[in-house]
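Example record

The entry below shows one chain as it appears in the dataset: sequence first, then C-alpha cells.
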Amino acid sequence: MDSTKVAFIGLGVMGFPMAGYLSKAGYDTRVYNRTAQKAQKWCDTFKGAHFLTPQQAAQDCDFVFLCVGNDDDVRSVVYGEDGVLASMQEGSVLVDHTTTSAELAEELAQACEKQSIQFVDAPVSGGQAGAENGALTIMCGGESQAYEKVAPIMECYGKQSVLMGKNGQGQRTKMVNQICIAGILKGLSEGLLLAQQADLDIEQLVDVLKHGAAGSWQMENRAVTMAQDKFDFGFAIDWMHKDLDICLNEAKSLGVELPLTKQVDNEYQKLQKQGLGRMDTSVLFKIYQ
C-alpha cells in the first residue's frame, strides 16, 4: 500500500472519476466537494474519506489536486481559513486541474511559494469520457522539480502529461486547445449542413472522412450525433463560453486578434439565451440549421 497521502477537491463529472483512479491506485485519498452528498457518494464508490472543508481534506497531504469550475471557485477552495493553503505542509504540491486564466496560475504559484509549497497548473482535455477512462491529456505549467514529483501520480488518470513551461503555460496551452475545438466545430457544423442538404449518408460520410486530412476527435465522436440532433451529453457550452472568454482576454493582453474564436463565442452566447447552456458544445450546429 502506498503511503502517499492525496486530497482531491471538486467531485464533478471530471473530478469524481479522477479521484477514483487515485484511490484505486492505492493512494490514501481524501476528498472534498461543495455538495456533501456527492462526496459521500464518492466514498460509497471508492475507498477514501471525505471532509467538510478543503482545509481539513488537505491536512498532512503530500499532494492536493483541484478540479472546480472557474477562477473564483479555485480561490474559494485555496484561500482563507477553510482553504487548502491553511493546512498544506512545506514541500507538498498543489495541482490545479481547473481550466482558469493564466493570471490565476501565476497568482497561485506566488501564494504557494510564500509557504514553501510547489504549484503546478494542469488543465486537462478529453472530457468526461477521458476522465472516466483514465485517458486525459494533461497540460502543465510549473517548475520541473514539482512536475516530476506529480507526473507519476497523474498517470493514474492521464494518457499523457507534458510540462509546457513556467506556471501559466499549462493554462495557455489549454486555451489553444479550446480555440482549435471551436474552429473544428464551426467547420464541422457547416460541412454537415451541406451534407444534409445534399442528402449524403452521414455515417458513411464520417467513415470516409475520419481517416483523411479532415479527420478529428470531434468528427469521429460528434458528427453523427449532431446530425441526429442529440446534444444532451459531453462538455456544456456554459463551460466552453467560460473557456473562450479566458482565451479572448489572454489574446487581448497579448495584442492578438481571434476573429473566429470571437464569432463562435458569440454564437454560443446566442444558444445560451435559448436555454441550451447545458448542451454539449456540438450544439453549435443549431446556429447553422
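Notes for this example: The chain has a mean pLDDT of 97. Residues 268 and 284 are 7 Å apart (CA to CA).
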